[in-house]
Amino acid sequence: MFPILPSSLPTSGQFEIEMVVKSSAPYAEMKQYADKLVGAAFASGHFLFADTDLKIDLPQIELQLNRQKIADLGMNVDQVSEQLGILLSNNFVNRFDSNGKAYRVIPIVNNDIRSKSESILSLTIKLGSGELVPVSAVADLKWKTVPRQLGTFAQQNSFRIYGGVAPNSNKEAALSAIENAAKEMLPVGYSIDYAGESRQLRKEGNTLVMVLGVSLLIVFLVLAIQFNSFRDPLVIILGCIPLALSGALVIPYLELTTINIYSQIGLITLIGLIAKNGILIVEFANKAQEQGASKLEAVIESATTRLRPILMTTAATILGHFPLVLVSGAGAEARNSIGIILVAGMFIGTMFTLFILPSFYLLIAKKRTVVENTSSLPIELTLKKVA
Question: What is the 8-class DSSP label of residue 158?
């Protein structure tokens, strides 16, 4: 029995690593490469266990008909096969009615003959002349070993290499190790594919960069509309988001979690949460400039004044998601991923935002002119009219 940790999301596979090797070669030839790949998996040190589904150990009997002897008896192979099929195939040949019910007629030899393979040769077939001859007169038995199952993938012969990841490794390292071994061992005409979680890892695992890029683009466009400027969104994106994402991605790098669908959701959520802190600083700094402060004075005053709201937002996010870090039980791995990403990203990102974002504000943000306060003009005009 092998220890298997089921995936938090439903997949078509049963193991953490499942690589498919496909070729048009016969299974007997593919078996030697399957055994070599299993050995390479154990030698890599990344696998807790590894095996292949290509097992050529199933005994099988082949009844070989002698065409020459059959022809000498005045028969052909079809006639012999038809008679043997009636005796051994369990197919019904007719129906009969009894008391208003129809019953199938299934001719079959008794279990004593069916349980002993050599007894098949003692069965008799009927010649055209009506004479009965034993099957041994026209056929021989041959024992051979065949695969337990004939695996196919994409209309080609195939076998799987599957296994569990060792505690000191991860799925990416284990899958890469078996891929490299396959590239070195497999000859021309062999190709590899994936199944289960490994297929998701290879086909969908590279979407993280695209997802983050789209998220950043949406955040930039929304901020550009809010500030009516392209500079202020750049200040927020460059001053907050890269640092927060870097802090969050340190956790998968230290192998405390993995990059999965849940951690990707956490990264997208982190972009929105950390951008809020930047909005508080940039918006207040812009208003300070419009009241006559310089860029340096405005950003220092903004960071100082907005420190408390920023820390409150960060503390609320961290404390709200921290239970996900400590959760255990069914589905804990999925909840741990999103919790760890958000907690680490918000904590590290906030610490850097308070110091790095003001620097980007000084470099990128435009200098705003003083806006005169005209709120008292209507009152003065009204007083003059009354006087």
Answer: E
Please state the domain extents for the chain. 17-55+149-203, 59-146, 205-364
Topology (CATH) of 17-55+149-203: Alpha-Beta Plaits (3.30.70)
Second CATH level (architecture) for the domain 59-146: 2-Layer Sandwich (3.30)
The yes-or-no verdict on residue 73 having pLDDT over 50 is: yes
Burial status of residue 278 (CB atoms within 10 A of its CB: 0-12, 13-18, 19 or more): buried
Phi, psi of 177 (to 5 degrees): -65, -45
- Give yes or no for residue 107 having a pLDDT over 70: yes
pTM of the predicted protein model: 0.59
CATH architecture of 205-364: Up-down Bundle (1.20)
> CA angle, 242 as apex, 236 and 247 as ends, to 5°?
125
